Amino acid sequence: MKPRKITDDVYFVGAPDWDRRYFDSLIPLPQGTSYNAYLIKGEHKTALIDTVDPSKWEMLDAYLSSVNSLDYVIVQHVEQDHSGSLPMVLQKYPEATVITNAKAKELLLSHLHVPEDRITVIKDGDSVDLGGLRLLFILTPWVHWPETMVTYLPERQVLFTCDFFGSHLATSDLFVLEEKLVYQGAKRYYAEIMSPFRGLIRTHLGKVRKLDLRLIAPSHGPVYSNPEFILSAYEEWSSEMPKNVVLIPWVSMHGSTQAMVDFLTYELVELGLNVDRFDVSTADLGELTMATVDAATIILASPTTLTGPHPAAEMAAYWIGALRPKARSFGIIGSYGWGTRMVDVIKGLWSSVNAEFLEPILVKGYPTEADFNKLAELARTIAQKHMEMGLM
Ligand code: FEO
User: How many angstroms separate the alpha carbon of residue 50 from the centre of ligand 1?
Assistant: First the structure.
């Protein structure tokens, strides 16, 4: 296989993963994903930026079959979907030096047992000269690990970003052709791994904005020949300003909690709010995660199972708490049979959430007219809060 040219002296040598259906054994991948690596050929030196998931090593190996020697392997991120084939690359090219930052070196030693004498450490702002081309390193910690960094090729105005700006999309296209399709895959990835670090994401976006950019080449999904598309999407997602959306993750066993959710949904829509609902017993967790990027209010709805929340709701509550979304208000509604400690359990899972907790509405059995009136009042309270935020 021949490396695929994306611009002069820069080649794609990555691997689409058409058949992968879960990322991190957690988030569904309806469009698959890819692990991108890039080959840069200077006048004197050749560098490889990132590798591929070890399950796709054969593809990277095939792309490298025409590359007789390799001087540098740039490791931008140690997570194994990008670094997992590094030991094979280093075995194939005994002369190659790994270039990365100090934190990544520590992680490479523990995660991949890379020989320490093969690693050269760079600092923020350092560069290497390939002969007519320079690779400039910019540290971007917590996108989404502590060692993450990006690499700028000023002579070609290309920024290599690894997970940053990546999209879950397996495609034979080198470049983004359908922005709507890529938007979904990029938001799915951002929501899962980067949204909790959105403050730092905004800082790093500021650094990227200062660069002259023609191409953004991430290590998942196609290359952006219109960098503005993904930069503006990231600016929107990482903003602290939510949208006029109420997210309702819910589950019901005998219909009582669903009746509450249906009623609340109707009332919210009547008041002019948008509602995103997910039955968490069957929902695509990636869709739910993407919805947390926008929601101003999150109402978890669950029946009581063995005194706690339904396990599907408990998992959703845990996950939402871990994401630390920008929503300003959180609430709990649901039904129970004879007793419940659901609110205590869920609030424990949300202990790190920095938001207002609305008064829970728990109903013994099927909701009465008085219970529906409380739900109508809850909808009015949420609408008032959205109005005060200027969302409607
Ligand atoms: Fe695509 Fe953090 O790995």
Answer: 11
79 lines ligand 1 (CB under 6 A): yes
Q: How confident is the model at residue 47 (pLDDT cuts 50, 70, 90)?
A: very high
Residue 119's φ and ψ, nearest 5 degrees, are -110, 130
Q: State the distance from the centre of ligand 1 to the C-alpha of 249, rounded, in angstroms.
A: 27
Q: Whose CA is nearest to atom 3 of ligand 1?
A: 79
The per-residue pLDDT for 325 is 97
Is the whole-model pTM more than 0.90?
Answer: yes
Q: What is the pLDDT of residues 280-304, one digit of tens each?
A: 999 999 999 999 999 999 999 999 9
Encode burial over 203-213: b for 16+ CB neighbours within 10 A, e otherwise.
Answer: ebbeebeebeb
- CATH no., domain 4-238: 3.60.15.10
Partners of 58 in the β-ladder: none
Task: Kindly report the CATH number that applies to the domain delimited by 247-383.
Answer: 3.40.50.360
**In sequence order, which ranges of the chain are alpha helices (DSSP H)?**
57-63, 80-83, 86-92, 102-112, 179-189, 198-209, 227-238, 256-270, 285-292, 311-323, 342-349, 369-388
Q: Is the CB of 294 under 6 A from ligand 1?
A: no
Domain ranges of the chain: 4-238, 247-383
